[in-house]
Design a protein that fits this description.
alpha+beta, Nucleotidyltransferase, domain 5, seven-stranded mixed sheet, two-stranded antiparallel sheet, 9 strands
Length: 292
């Protein structure tokens, strides 16, 4: 910014030499001596000032301040987290609290990030993260097996939802096979057994049964993706739990267990298959009842 309140005159001199045909000029500008600096200003910006950011690092479980944050990282509530925490001992990995060990396990299950990435979050080596994961896994497997049980028939009928009472009053369970993608196995034999044509990937499959009210009542061991739904159902021991008159609801992937169910005096109910390009009126009604 220039200060024009200056009383000093502006001087300009010009000399011309005719002999040498030369011109020289000189100017005296007092105004330049009174230039003042423009004051520094800051532009208005969005977001927090970097100088005001809290630079505290991630402290694992102690960084969780509300249940929403816990769900984002682990998909559990505080109630479920504390229940699982009661199954983990204090004896191993004393340098890492059992709260953080459980968090490491649940973050791996929930987010699927690498051991190295989790190690960065908790400031520990990736091999330590791996050992913690398998340690917690083994503890929870042994302590939570009783969470899945086969309810007696009376309990199921007493809690039968209204939608089942009219069309499927003897429904014992609904079954389906869950398929989970895996990394490529190391051996050729494992690749053959685990490759799923349906998923076009390497997978493991397990049969899951739920009661009409939504309780998981049966979970089979894991099979390679090559195994069919029919083979898994016949092999895993599920059919031995059925009783006379039980109705089992399934999708179209289980036609091969129809005879096995009949041998147990049980009834397999599946959506009808399409014949001659269209469903009959009764088949449409049956399909509708299964879907609703």
């Amino acid at each position: 910014m220039f200060d024009f309140n200056n009383t000093n005159p502006f001087t300009f001199e010009c000399e011309f030499n005719k002999l040498n045909n030369d011109v020289g000029t000189q100017a005296n500008i007092p105004l330049l001596n009174n230039i003042s600096k423009i004051s520094n200003t800051k532009d208005i910006a969005c977001g927090p000032d970097v100088s005001c950011l809290n630079m505290n690092s991630f402290l694992g479980y102690h960084s969780i301040t509300n249940e929403s944050q816990l769900k984002d990282l682990t998909s559990t509530t505080f109630k479920v987290f504390n229940l699982l925490l009661s199954f983990i001992s204090d004896s191993c990995y004393s340098a890492v609290s059992k709260e953080n060990r459980l968090m490491i396990f649940l973050i791996k299950i929930k987010l699927g990030i690498s051991y190295s990435a989790i190690g960065v979050l908790f400031n520990i080596n990736r091999t330590t993260v791996s050992r913690i994961f398998y340690s917690v896994l083994n503890s929870l497997v042994s302590k939570t097996k009783h969470f899945i049980f086969w309810p007696n028939k009376k309990s199921i009928l007493d809690t039968l939802p209204r939608a089942f009472k009219q069309n499927y009053p003897n429904c014992r369970c609904i079954i389906d096979c869950t398929e989970i993608k895996t990394e490529q196995p190391s051996t050729v034999e494992q690749r053959v057994n685990m490759y799923s044509r349906y998923k076009n990937a390497y997978t493991v499959k397990t049969l899951v049964a739920i009661t009409p009210s939504g309780l998981i009542s049966f979970l089979s061991k894991c099979y390679g993706g090559r195994a069919s739904d029919t083979f898994i159902t016949n092999d895993c021991g599920f059919l031995s739990k059925l009783e006379k008159g039980d109705e089992v609801l399934a999708d179209k992937g289980f036609p091969g267990i129809k005879v096995s169910c009949e041998n147990k005096n049980s009834i397999l109910i599946m959506p009808p298959f399409l014949h001659n390009g269209r469903f009959s009126e009764n088949e449409v009604v049956e399909t509708y009842n299964l879907l609703v």
